[in-house]
Amino acid sequence: MCGIVGYVGDQSALGVVIEGLRRLEYRGYDSAGVAMLADGKLATAKKAGKLANLEALLEESPMAPATTGIGHTRWATHGAPNDRNAHPHVDCTGTVAVIHNGIIENFAHLRAELESRGHELVSDTDTEAVAHLLEEATRGGEVGLADAMRAVCHRLEGAFTLVATHADFPDAVVGARRNSPLVVGRGQGENFLASDVAAFIAHTRDAVELGQDQVVEVRRDGVTVTDFDGNPGEVREYHVDWDLSAAEKGGYDFFMLKEIDEQPQAVADTMLGRLDDDNRLVLDEMRLSDDDLREIDKIIVIACGTSFHAGLVAKYAIEHWTRIPCEVELASEFRYRDPVLTRSTLIVAISQSGETMDTLMALRHAREQKAKVLAICNTNGSTMPRESDAVLYTHAGPEVAVASTKGYLTQIVACYLVGLYLAQVRGTKYGDEIAKVVADLRAMPAKMQRVLDDLEPVRELARDLAGATSVLFLGRHVGYPTALEGALKLKELAYMHAEGFAAGELKHGPIALIEEGVPVITAVPSPRGRSILHDKMVSNLQEVRARGARTIVIAEDGDTTVEPYADVVIRIPQSPTLLQPLLSTIPLQVFACEMAKARGHDVDQPRNLAKSVTVE
Ligand code: F6R
User: Fold this and answer.
1) DSSP character for 89?
2) What is the mean predicted confidence (pLDDT) over 319-335?
3) 406-426 helix and 305-322 helix, angle to the nearest 10 degrees
4) What is the best residue among 356, 382, 394 to mutate for testing ligand 1's pocket, by most ligand atoms within 8 Å of CB?
5) How far is C-alpha 128 from the chain's CA centre?
6) Whole-number Å distance between alpha carbons of 522 and 511
7) What is the pLDDT of residues 173-204, one digit of tens each?
8) How many other C-beta atoms can be found within 10 angstroms of the C-beta atom of residue 542?
9) pTM value?
10) Is 2 a catalytic residue?
């Protein structure tokens, strides 16, 4: 949602904070703002729109040099995305500044209370109330900022990361977190606070993961963590295993293009150390015992958006390999339908960020009902792995573009690993059958690279179709989630009508959408193996072509049967049907990206979106 940075040290706080905000802009770009402490005085600057607008303002009206400061990039929830509602927010006296990620649910009540005591609130945000509560709690500097923050946190309901700075305590920045991310970066004679390690990766790779309901005081020479009552807080220290280059564009115009190209490596990294020389699965890190895994009688995958599509792919693989019933549910719907959960239900929560509030709340609901929870996550130090019984990290490296690409394909790989591991532990597949799938999986990164090497026709096609008003995607079996993912990418990046359908459903209604020239994109399953799927898909292709659709067909090398019914054929290497999404998704990602470019949109920061959605 929003991005938060805090800094105390010897460098220019403004420089460090702006650089951090640039790396966090993927979290929200409705407005940006900073608060700096210089010569015992608090100064703020904030501006609606992207960070560049704030930078232009700072160039026009420079701030005094400071070594303590905070900064924020916003994805608006309460109040329009204008200058007035931009963070930081200050109190009546202009001594406390606060930035916030999340939602303070009881803010209306707090606001009314503060106004009745004479406070003047000038924005429409929920955050501003906290600045005034801190003003009261610090009692003109008599009470320290960390103590005041602890007291204020007791009054707040909802989800929040808060970071504050106070003119009377110029050598500290204080943060608090509940249900929303905040990490500490430990430097030499300087320390950092941020929503994500990317903000300080240029300065340190030593991070501290804060626990739930903790307050942290960050000074030049140290960091103090407590719970909301002031008791020492438990934290986890870790070393970030990627460096600055992973968080930079590295010569690409957009992060998304770089991340698409990184997919073969990300998939290989996600398998690394998890397969032995005999192609057996080794998932010791998972923290669920083999006995636990043998007891499972139902699997429910919960996730949102693109991660949900990874879950849909997982269902086909897991049921096929393990014979355990597997449901896939939108996390945002899950807990409201009173799902049937028992101790032998395994919940697989898939989330690139590990912070998506819908998924987190669903996960918590499942744990309350005593189900076991396995998180598939990309972000070390995020909330979901900490709150799950087990975790399998995807090793995709930082994903900065708002639209998920390498996050998605590595999630699919992690799901395959879970399915195969369950099959291995429960003996639902023979060792040589598992070894065959593993060998096929090992071959995928090279095949993905071949797809990436031959995408110019896809780019051309996207430029050619840039004026289309609607694009439809069809798929069967694992091609169905691929169709949904292709449509989602196009919607979010190109802002155009796009829909994914199960190809067999078409004749039950959506076929009425087909008219002359409508682009229809399909991924056709392999004609080898379960050829019935292939043949049915080819029939569906004929149906839409007969009604005037312009058909764009993703098909395996050597599959000539599609040619009579395809206006354009995009070739991918041969692979087992279950693994095909690792290949067939790539052209769709590139298609959406190129379409967005052709339509003049910002590929990395699509309108109205933010990368990690930390509100329900
Ligand atoms: C779309 C996209 C989103 C996310 C969704 C879940 O390209 O990225 O749909 O997949 O918001 O995010 P995570 O995986 O972080 O829980």
Assistant:
1) E
2) 96
3) 20
4) 356
5) 27
6) 14
7) 999 999 888 999 999 999 999 999 999 999 99
8) 13
9) 0.86
10) yes
- CB of 378 within 6 A of ligand 1: the answer is no
| Arch. (CATH architecture) of 259-444 | 3-Layer(aba) Sandwich (3.40)
Which CATH architecture is the domain 454-598 placed in?
3-Layer(aba) Sandwich (3.40)
415 is known as an active-site residue: no
Mutation test residue for ligand 1: of 332, 353, 492, the one with most atoms within 8 Å of CB: 353
Distance CA 577, CA 533 (A): 9
- Per-residue confidence at 567, pLDDT binned at 50, 70, 90? very high
CATH superfamily of 3-248: Aminohydrolase, N-terminal nucleophile (Ntn) domain (3.60.20.10)
End-to-end CA distance of the chain: 11
Residue 114 pLDDT more than 90?
yes
Atom of ligand 1 nearest to the CA of 403: 7
From the candidates 2, 304, 377, 415, give the one annotated as an active-site residue.
Answer: 2
Supply the residue whose CA is at minimum distance from atom 3 of ligand 1.
305
Nearest alpha carbon to residue 227 among 216, 238, 218: 216
Structure tokens at 530: 């379960």
**pLDDT for position 290:** 92
List 315, 447, 489, 611, catalytic entry: 611
pLDDT score of 530: 67
